[in-house]
Amino acid sequence: MAYQPAENRYDNMIYRRVGNSGLKLPAISLGLWHNFGDDKPLETQRAIIHRAFDRGVTHFDLANNYGPPAGSAETNFGRILREDLKSHRDELIISSKAGWDMWPGPYGFGGSRKYLVSSLDQSLKRLGVDYVDVFYHHRPDPETPLEETMYALRDIVASGKALYVGISSYGSELTAEAAEFMAEEGCPLLIHQPSYSIVNRWVEEPGDDGESLLQTAANNGLGVIAFSPLAQGLLTDKYLDGVPEGSRASQGKSLSEGMLSVENIDMVRKLNDIAQERGQSLAQMALAWVLREQGEYGVDTVTSALIGASSVAQLDNSLDALNNLEFTNAEIDAIDEISHDAGINLWAKATESKTREN
Ligand SMILES: NC(=O)c1ccc[n+]([C@@H]2O[C@H](COP(=O)([O-])OP(=O)(O)OC[C@H]3O[C@@H](n4cnc5c(N)ncnc54)[C@H](OP(=O)(O)O)[C@@H]3O)[C@@H](O)[C@H]2O)c1
């Protein structure tokens, strides 16, 4: 039977405007970093994507290297798109990226025009689309002049192969500089994609210029889509009683067992108690926290929380976070008191690798 999306799919999702642009994103978006490679059954992938779309998740985030093997998440998503969602292409925001290692030799990594343009062409083929909605430079590259990377992004938009462009894991100062270049070119950066969660708050800390990344993004009209808001699963109840079989931590992938230290699990247990008092799962509270109203920039400080999911049940649980995004001051204070940096920011070195000075 051909897939028929739910008719009420737009009834319960919250859509937030991305920075100063005219584009809106769902408050929760789905990323395909893990769980959508050739190591996972295609039918599970299909069920998760159908359910996401049925619940108003219009944004699916990919990158050239998502898999394993690298590229297979785009191929698998492209197949599901072709088979089930083709007539809904204009209802979808599909993103991809290049910047991390993709193919051997000097042109499969970094921020050169050569790499970005050829990688996007490969991504379009794997996805089976003429354009992506958002194309990102995936990480700063200290060996490529910022101008070269930004002008490549500008020309990609001019070529029609991406409608908007963004950056990921750039620090505050470099973000400001990149945003200025692109504004002058009449091709403003749409969005920044940083890691951000209760236990990884680097985006709130002032950089050398005294501004946090969240402030810099807002001041330059960029939206923010926060990746790994569940700290790869640490901010859920799944590791409270050990490491379940099949979980990310059990697979020797990006969530090492070292991140599940006694201190971290003890913190997670206390956070779980607060979530329960709020009538939420810990995953739901962690997502609501990322999306919470933040002083100066209000509810739009973070446009969207970019989650992963290995099952429909997880996705459903996470999407129900939208039922309660409000926090009392006492809850915020209690979360601050309990939480510490969990040492899970795997992208910190990339962020630090380029500042205005060097
Ligand atoms: N720009 C970048 O450099 C960058 C880097 C990383 C990620 N990202 C993007 O961000 C997306 C999300 O990253 P992420 O997967 O690390 O995000 P995450 O949402 O922090 O973690 C997802 C994992 O948490 C567990 N989980 C999810 N919902 C749950 C629930 N309700 N209850 C219990 N466990 C739950 C699952 O673990 P199990 O798989 O163990 O079941 C799932 O795979 C990626 O797919 C990618 O699009 C971007």
Automatic annotation (TrEMBL):
<dbReference type="Pfam" id="PF00248">
    <property type="entry name" value="Aldo_ket_red"/>
</dbReference>
<dbReference type="InterPro" id="IPR005399">
    <property type="entry name" value="K_chnl_volt-dep_bsu_KCNAB-rel"/>
</dbReference>
<dbReference type="InterPro" id="IPR036812">
    <property type="entry name" value="NAD(P)_OxRdtase_dom_sf"/>
</dbReference>
<feature type="domain" description="NADP-dependent oxidoreductase">
    <location>
        <begin position="28"/>
        <end position="339"/>
    </location>
</feature>
<dbReference type="InterPro" id="IPR023210">
    <property type="entry name" value="NADP_OxRdtase_dom"/>
</dbReference>
<comment type="similarity">
    <text>Belongs to the shaker potassium channel beta subunit family.</text>
</comment>
<dbReference type="GO" id="GO:0016491">
    <property type="term" value="F:oxidoreductase activity"/>
</dbReference>
<dbReference type="GO" id="GO:0051596">
    <property type="term" value="P:methylglyoxal catabolic process"/>
</dbReference>
<keyword id="KW-0560">Oxidoreductase</keyword>
<protein>
    <submittedName>
        <fullName>L-glyceraldehyde 3-phosphate reductase</fullName>
        <ecNumber>1.1.1.-</ecNumber>
    </submittedName>
</protein>
<keyword id="KW-0521">NADP</keyword>
